[in-house]
Fold each of these.
Amino acid sequence: MSILNQLREGCFTIGVLHVPPFPTSVLGGERSLEEIVAHCVKNARVLEESGFSSVLLQNVGDEPVGRAASPDTVANMAVLAREVKKALSIPLGVTLLDHDGRAPIAIAKAAGADYVRIKVFCGLMVKMTGMLEGLYYDAVRYRREIGAGEVDILADVFDREGYPLGDTDLGEMARFAVQSCKADGLILTGKDQRGTEEMLETAGRATGAPLLIGGGVDAQNAGQLKGRAQGFIIGSCLKTPGGPYADLSPRACREVAEAFAKQ
């Protein structure tokens, strides 16, 4: 199910679930796959019951990761996403730490998920993990090859976790991502709120695609940001104390969802 119509209506809130380490991850995990599934299903339901528009799964616990997703990562994420999808009546997305354009599409197709987030979609980015080349060709071609046209691609432009190589203008890159590389929506995230707002303004002038903010959103700044983009990806502020894989706080989730629901 395409999320584009819902995105264009605005105030589309995406709650991120940081998936604990799988048993097969590089550093190993203490939880079994069954326990991880139960944890994510429980917290995904918290997001839906709080009024979020969508849930996004990210394999944060698999650090460190390689350039391409390993077969066990694809298998684990597909099983997890399938079970979470069955528990929800709202759209589900998938994103990987791994630099891979095909794997998230494959996972989404197998699980019945609705969209993927790809952080380095076009251009060249320098990150802590090295120089990363845009994945647009692999992602778009593979989506067509496996008949996954129903899976939308949300693409970051100049992801804040890295630096673009070259002097390409943000507006030019945003236009290229949509027109030539076939991104369905664009994710913009600056180093701070003002930087995010400036990026949204530039990308908005360059393209008519739905725009999403990829981070730095909470209940306090929702009122300032909700008119500037159509979608909002929200993660860390929703958690209870207790580490990166702690349960979500129902209260924090409700506060964010209600902040976006206010007229």
Amino acid sequence: FTTNQLTTLCGYNLPKDAACFLANLQQLYAGTNNFDGPLPASLSNAARLQLFTTESNQFSGPIPL
């Protein structure tokens, strides 16, 4: 998701098997996309996430734990 000039991450519809995907996600590069608003609560399912970059976005609110 880097440098895509997308406008929302919260409105992204994840596939039905996303819980499986998020559980194994280790790196997520979301920088320079103009995302705004809160981070999706489903991000808390990424138990193995080690790196999450968000530079040049306008996220607000808490980081889902």
Amino acid sequence: MGSFNNTKISIIGLGNLGINIGHLLLSNNNNLSITGFDLVKDQSKLAKDSKSITKEANSYAECLKDTNLIILAVPTSSTYEIFESIKDIISYDTHIIDFSSNKRAVSSWATEMIPNNEIIGLYPFVKSDTLLGINWGVINYSNSKSKIIDICKLLIKDAKGFGINIDINEHDSYVGLVEAMPFLLSSLLIKLSHNSSSWKEVFRYFDDNFNSFSSPADIDPIKSFSSISTNNDMISQWIKLYISELMNLEKYLESNSEKEVADFVNAAWEDKLMIKNNIDPNMSSSSDIIPSAQENMLSLFIGSKAAGFFTKSKNIDKDKYGFEKRI
């Protein structure tokens, strides 16, 4: 039995996230009514056909009728328009869960326009196409009280997930790094490429690395603009840090500092491996946990423990920069 049996829920925003949330709730609960609304009518029809909602609404007012809980799955900037539209018609006992990217803006707007309604922020740390069994960031707003916190816990329970309390400022800083910065950097890469005099001759032949790195630029422009324009200060700080790192690298290259460049490459490889293996980079012994490139390949055939034994039981020739000699 689910946590929302005999409940009326409204989902505003029926993109991929809104549809997945609706499908999750309907799969786990009996006699659950979910009314969905999206400005794009085709999305509402898709949600209904995929059994992610039970009823399509044609307006915010219709979507809110007799609902106990509103789930907002829209770009951050759209939330302001929604609050303006519902502030005079929403019942005081209707609760709200917000899934937008930037929480500080939404918290401020909620306090201003719907101060009597409890609202909380959720951020699903999605690593695949499912919401099941993942970690959920729980972000308290100015209007977050015990009732909406309990509802939030029930949703996470239905998803068989784990809730993590996150400070609202830390959340927006994190989102600025993982959502906005990849879009900005990939967009600049494309701009640099297009402005190159040779681009018109070679653009047909770009490889998978270029395609992979530039993939964040494929995100819906409305979502990207919303994510950037409502989180200016955090993104600005990340840009300054990024520029600082680029300037250091530029100095190494201009002075032909091979040792510093080698250290940079090694550190990047190790940092990425830590992320992939969920290793805390602050651990003093983390370097002992990270397998070498040779171990990684060997472990595919004989297992990680055996690979560690075989590679660490013999000396490996390295060049003056610390890279394993290949010839």
Amino acid sequence: MTTKIRRTVAATGMAAAALLSVGVAAQPAAAGTCAIQPYGLIGDYWRALGGADSWFGCATVDEYTPPNMTGRKQRFEHGQIAWSPKQGERMIVAAFQKNNQAVFRWGPTDPFHYEYFQVSGELSNGGTVLGAPLPGGTAGRYAVNVAKGLKITFWVHGCDQKFPVRKVCRQGWTIPVSVTMT
């Protein structure tokens, strides 16, 4: 009996991880309440996190291509989501507010796999946040306390070799995403 339960939990966990890693669209969660409907990988990610009921809320602008960048980006009531294909075919970066923290999530970087990630953040008051090397792999998350009223913009790059002496970050920095703390 115990073995069957463990296998079921493991299989369920792997299936859920597989669904999230490929960005399978969840059923829209109150998506009909938003005037602008996100689509594609950004829309899939937004719906998987709860759509209009997620930490992001509704989209405030249509998806667009940032100037001089490859990828797509969309602003929401409480953050931004971007597709950053130079760092992975289905790479999503997202910034949102969760309570008093600015949360930054990224992944999957497939087909790339990194020894570590480095996050950089820039505050609207001129301050900077440079995260210590974070565990590698194909995805990650970073959260930091940010004062009310400040905007923080995040980037991440995946790197190999020893930090910081022989740092090799071949795919470069992602498209930046921001959140303004309320």
